[in-house]
Amino acid sequence: MKGIIIAVPNKGRLKEPACRLLGGAGIKRIDDERAYLSNTTAEAVQILSVRAADIPVYVYHGIADMGITGRDIISETALEVYELADLGFGACDLVVAVSADSSYRKPSDLPSGSKLATEFPNVAKRYFNDLGVQVEVITLRGAVEIAPVLGLAEAIVDLSSTGKTLEKNGLKTIGTIMTSSARLICNRISYKTNYARIKALVEALRRGC
Amino acid sequence: MHCASGAESCKGGIQFTRFQTPEGFRDLAPDDVAKYLFVEGEFRKIFGLWGYREVRTSSIDYFDIIRGGAGEGFTDSLFKVQDYDGKMLSLRGEVTTQIARMLTSKARDEGRLFYISNCIRYLETRTLLQREFWQAGAELIGGRTVAADAEAIALAIAALQSLGIGDVYVDIGNVALFQLAADSLGIGDNCAIRRAVASKSIDDLRKLTESDRIKEALSYMMMKRGGPEIVREFSEVTGVGKEYPEYFDGLFALLDAYGCRGRVTIDLSTLREMKYYNGTVFDIYSGGLGVPIGGGGRYDCMMREFGLEAKATGFAVSVDLCVRLIEKGMGKGFGGGAKEVPARIMYRDGFQGEAVLMARRFRAEGKACTVEEFDESKEGFVVGPDGIMAWAGSGEDRKVEGRR
Lengths: 209, 404
Description:
The complex is a heterodimer.
Chain A: E1 4-9, H1 15-24, E2 37-39, E3 45-50, H2 55-60, E4 66-70, H3 71-77, E5 82-86, E6 92-99, E7 114-118, H4 121-131, E8 135-139, H5 147-150, E9 155-160, H6 164-168, E10 171-180, E11 182-186, H7 188-193, H8 195-208
Parallel strand pairs in A: 1-3, 1-4, 7-8, 7-9
Antiparallel strand pairs in A: 2-3, 4-11, 5-11, 6-9, 6-10
Chain B: H1 30-49, E1 53-54, E2 60-62, H2 63-70, H3 72-75, E3 80-82, E4 88-91, H4 96-104, E5 112-120, E6 132-141, H5 145-161, E7 168-174, H6 175-185, H7 191-198, H8 202-208, H9 212-223, H10 229-238, H11 244-257, E8 264-266, E9 280-286, E10 294-298, H12 300-305, E11 312-318, H13 319-327, E12 343-347, H14 352-364, E13 369-373, E14 379-384, E15 387-392, E16 399-403
Parallel strand pairs in B: 1-5, 7-8, 12-13, 12-14
Antiparallel strand pairs in B: 2-4, 3-4, 5-6, 6-11, 7-9, 9-10, 10-11, 14-15, 15-16
């Protein structure tokens, strides 16, 4: 049987629910916790543990046949992969936020040339391009919500699930770019060459959602 | 150099070493070229056997002509330069549009053409392709639609099989049938729905529409894989494209005759980037690689753009990806021609003329050779006062054979 490699986040908010979902379908890691590539309790299925942000890259290149990662991350990488299931967990919005005392009420109110801090530069650029608003995107690797307070940027594009973190940092949401959740993605060629097995796996994982 | 920001990096302008090529471009060393020549040679043989004649299109073209054929979205990715009279030119980014133009002018009587050519586009290099990439393609003009479509698909498979890549498959879709269904379902140019279909995201589709009819029809399109029965069922589900089952029956019967059974699958969500496609389109792939090796399809509409009422179909495959597949051991190797070492004829002082005479004899017999000054560390033939002798390089027993 041709083996299947599933890429799963090795940390972060998607890691635990992803492992639970796979475990429910009889796919549990059996090798050492530190191993990047582990055999599993399922025959000819291996788990590749890598960063959620890199999972579309591994799947696009066919290193992993399938993967679990956020819709936000898939959009950011803009790599062509199949999204075979919305797994439901990890739900959050990718929003545009500004200081709570700001007069801007929607993203198109931002003046051209505004500075915008984000971990999602590609999504942010595409979104504001479509709006016809030219923004200067500053890419950060985390703690984006403090950028407006510190004067680094007028606005941010960041994930928000409850809105509490934004509120705590004196920010308000003025627009939602997309609603994200965990997706089961698949390499386009693996899907074709290993159709029967992948279809069965998708059905098993859907039952567990 | 003045630099307002005073940044350190401004001192020397753009920073690069003299060993670098611009991102996405590279030099091919002799060993690389040998691999490319092998792949291109096999393609030339196959295309020739199928009656196709080679063309070379111009490296630079009028931007507006390419835009007319290939569409706005594609032309964003072209390298552009300006002619001395202000006209916008673009570097060759794909070949099909140029061939359509050629057919209306220089090659009016031709029916089967092929090319092996480099193309240059602003591609993101992380998608496996360099910004300069090599592709081989064939274009078939005229003929009955079903026969020509089958020939194009079968030739694409045959070309890759000639490299010993056994694991070759083709997915077939039809953009006209997709458009008929989209129009009948009233989803026209809905980008979000098209994106959901292209990425096979059933769950996104469910959120995008309330209509059960759209959900049923598009889910069918996205998830089913198989033979002509897929199209028959799709046509029954949607009530559109009644004439397509017969077309696909005919196509598959011919592909069977070409020996392509088991290699071709209908997946109606197969759509392609270029706007010029208007009928059957296909993706070519191999299990050894995560991305398609090539693709093609029917483009009668573009022929009309050039004022020619002609049917046309064709395909292109990536030579770079074929080389990569063979390097990964997926083919029959590079045919041994990858490293042909010429004989070395070395001369001692005063015997250069004799060495040249010997080289002329070698070459007249079709043997490759070089003429060099004697170097005792190298192997070759030595021409000197002792006559000609075979030399095994430095070490024991150097003198192998002497000849006056």
